[in-house]
């Protein structure tokens, strides 16, 4: 099923962003050199090979999409959901670096959260810039802090990828037509089985998420990718998503594969 | 049957499935999902949260983990990533035999042999920076999770842990070991080794001890803070003390001429001894402007 999904995505991707055909071929050679057929076909990614491929894939020029500008956002903030573990991993240690374990760091953050009951300034806890495994991060104007699971589903994150220690990051958008990031390309999103390629010919101002709450799956909220952002520009809330929720609210990746396949097939010719 | 290495989260249910998955996580497989969620421990937490029966899932996991730790031979060289994944899981779930395995490795072998091609990792670190990137350092941090405060005195591995910390006082982990010994109550705030380090490396030691003061483990911290402030006064280290406070987003203030520490979370009394109080008042007086001194005198 994963190979069918990749094939469908590949067709849709190249139909919508044909300028990346050569790079996609290079990507395929990279997979071949590591013995992978595609990014998500059920291979046993042992011994960091997947990480190596992802890292090597950065030669494909991430953040090469159209620029996104602040006055087009139509919202006061951009949001990002990440796990606390990854937040620690992809920033530099500030105050939290003084504490030994992740549990202690999480306890510190929660203590502060219950004291303030509000968004906290990230630079009070961590330093440096917020980045990701491939040097960029994904953001959306959709407020993710209110109903985390539902909001994350609406931006294309299934339960599988929602941590128990969730951090919602928020950065302000000043409507002065300054560049705030890039429209994600198929190269930026090559490693995700859930990615909606925008159509180059439409000159998109933003990327678009897939709304996993819609049936059938549909294009959802906007998204952009951003190069590393200084922690001083970012505020955050820390949320424990350890509850068990009812089965009808669950959206697991395995249960989405047929729907995703249909979505990518429709995307090839769709708007 | 679990399909391996996909972008979906695995869904082990039985002990055997958990055992297989734990081995794979330690071997750095499932990289995609580990990268999405941040760590092997977070992957495990999400699996349990989303299981159809979380308590049964957790029980199967705990049995599998105990079995895995029982079989673990830390003296056999492993990739450093294997150790780090193991420590991540031990630190998060603290299976009972984990502390013993770590302590015995420290006691009998004394190092953490890795078979990384790029980093042999068996030589002793010579500096604190080098030490803090070592497998040994990570193992010490995991042990901290096994001995949280307040300590349970009946813990039969504690004496081994304490010996380990004492044995590391003169190593690059010395300041960390002193902090742990202090908060565990194995040494007092007037311990000569502590005072000697305060003179040699005031900022590093004060920084380490400040983690007790503003940390979430509350045992003993006001007396430690007070002693730290008193010692800093007596050793003329108040400028260094203040610099460290700024790094922790803390400030000093006063309440009826007694110093207070404002942390990001609360205000703590600093109850200093008589000698320190005299020194504090002298320091305070010398820092006042002429007009402030006049006001104080009128007040008196």
Description of the structure:
The complex is a heterodimer of chains A (271) and B (300). Chain A is α+β, with helices and mostly antiparallel strands and 271 residues long. Chain A is 30% helix and 20% strand. In chain A, α1 runs parallel beside α7. The longest helix of chain A is centred in the last third of the chain and has 17 residues. The model of chain A has no long low-confidence stretch (mean pLDDT 89). Chain B is 61% helix and 4% strand. Chain B has a 3-stranded antiparallel sheet with strand order 1-2-3. In chain B, α10 packs parallel to α12, α11 crosses α12 and α13 crosses α15. The longest helix of chain B is centred in the first third of the chain and has 18 residues. Chain B is elongated, with a radius of gyration of 24 Å. Chain B starts with 14 loop residues before the first helix and ends with a helix. The mean pLDDT of chain B is 86. The chains are: A alpha+beta (271), B mainly alpha (300). The interface between A and B is large, with 55 and 46 residues.
Short description:
Chain A is α+β, with helices and mostly antiparallel strands and 271 residues long. Chain A is 30% helix and 20% strand. The two termini of chain A are 25 Å apart.
User: What is the average per-residue confidence, as pLDDT of chain A, rounded to a whole number?
Assistant: 89
- Please report which band the strand proportion of chain B falls in: under 5%, 5-15%, 15-25%, 25-35%, 35-45% or over 45%: under 5%
The helix content of chain B is: 55-70%
Count, helices of chain B: 16
N-C termini distance of chain A: 25 Å
């Amino acid at each position: 099923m994963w190979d069918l999904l990749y094939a469908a995505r590949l067709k849709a991707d190249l139909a919508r962003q044909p300028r990346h055909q050569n790079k996609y071929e290079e990507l395929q050679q990279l997979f071949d050199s590591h013995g992978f057929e595609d990014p998500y076909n059920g291979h046993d990614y042992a011994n960091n090979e997947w990480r190596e491929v992802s890292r090597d894939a950065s030669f494909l020029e991430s953040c090469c999409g159209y620029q996104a500008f602040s006055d087009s956002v139509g919202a006061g903030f951009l949001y990002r959901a990440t796990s606390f573990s990854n937040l620690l991993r992809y920033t530099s240690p500030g105050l939290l670096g003084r504490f030994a374990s992740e549990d202690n760091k999480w306890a510190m953050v929660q203590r502060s959260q219950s004291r303030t009951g509000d968004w906290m300034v990230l630079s009070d806890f961590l330093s440096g810039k917020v980045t990701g495994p491939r040097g960029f991060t994904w953001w959306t104007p959709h407020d993710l802090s209110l109903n985390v699971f539902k909001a994350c589903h609406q931006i294309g994150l299934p339960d599988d990828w929602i941590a128990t220690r969730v951090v919602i990051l928020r950065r302000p958008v000043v409507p002065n037509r300054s560049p705030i990031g890039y429209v994600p390309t198929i190269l930026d999103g090559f490693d995700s089985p859930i990615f909606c390629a925008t159509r180059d010919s439409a000159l998109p101002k933003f990327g678009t998420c897939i709304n996993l709450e819609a049936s059938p799956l549909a294009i959802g909220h906007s998204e952009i990718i951003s190069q590393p952002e200084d922690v001083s520009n970012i505020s955050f809330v820390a949320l424990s998503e350890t509850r068990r929720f009812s089965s009808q609210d669950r959206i697991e990746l395995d249960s989405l594969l047929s729907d995703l396949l249909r979505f990518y097939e429709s995307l090839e010719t769709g708007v | 049957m679990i399909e391996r290495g996909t972008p979906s989260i695995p869904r082990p249910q039985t002990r055997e499935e958990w055992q297989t998955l734990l081995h794979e996580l330690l071997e750095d497989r499932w990289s995609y999902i580990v990268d999405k969620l941040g760590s092997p421990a977070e992957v495990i937490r999400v699996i349990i949260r989303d299981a159809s029966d979380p308590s049964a899932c957790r029980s199967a996991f705990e049995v599998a983990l105990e079995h895995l730790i029982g079989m673990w031979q830390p003296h056999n060289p492993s990739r450093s990533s294997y150790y780090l994944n193991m420590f991540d899981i031990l630190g998060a779930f603290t299976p009972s035999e984990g502390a013993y395995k770590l302590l015995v490795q420290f006691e009998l072998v004394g190092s953490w042999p890795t078979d990384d091609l790029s980093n042999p990792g068996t030589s002793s670190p010579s500096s604190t920076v080098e030490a803090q990137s070592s497998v040994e350092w990570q193992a010490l941090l995991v042990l901290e999770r096994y001995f949280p405060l307040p300590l349970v005195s009946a813990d039969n591995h504690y004496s081994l842990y304490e010996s380990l910390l004492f044995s590391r006082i003169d190593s690059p982990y010395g300041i960390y070991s002193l902090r742990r010994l202090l908060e565990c109550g194995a040494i007092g705030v007037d311990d000569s080794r502590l005072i000697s380090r305060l003179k040699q490396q005031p900022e590093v030691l004060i920084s380490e001890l400040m983690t007790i003061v503003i940390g979430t483990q509350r045992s003993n911290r006001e007396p430690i803070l007070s002693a730290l402030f008193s010692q800093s006064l007596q050793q003329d280290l108040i400028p260094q003390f203040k610099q460290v406070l700024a790094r922790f987003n803390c400030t000093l203030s006063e309440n009826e001429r007694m110093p207070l520490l404002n942390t990001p979370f609360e205000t703590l009394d600093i109850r200093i001894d008589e000698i320190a109080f005299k020194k504090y008042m002298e320091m305070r007086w010398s820092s006042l402007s002429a007009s402030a001194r006049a006001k104080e005198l009128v007040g008196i």
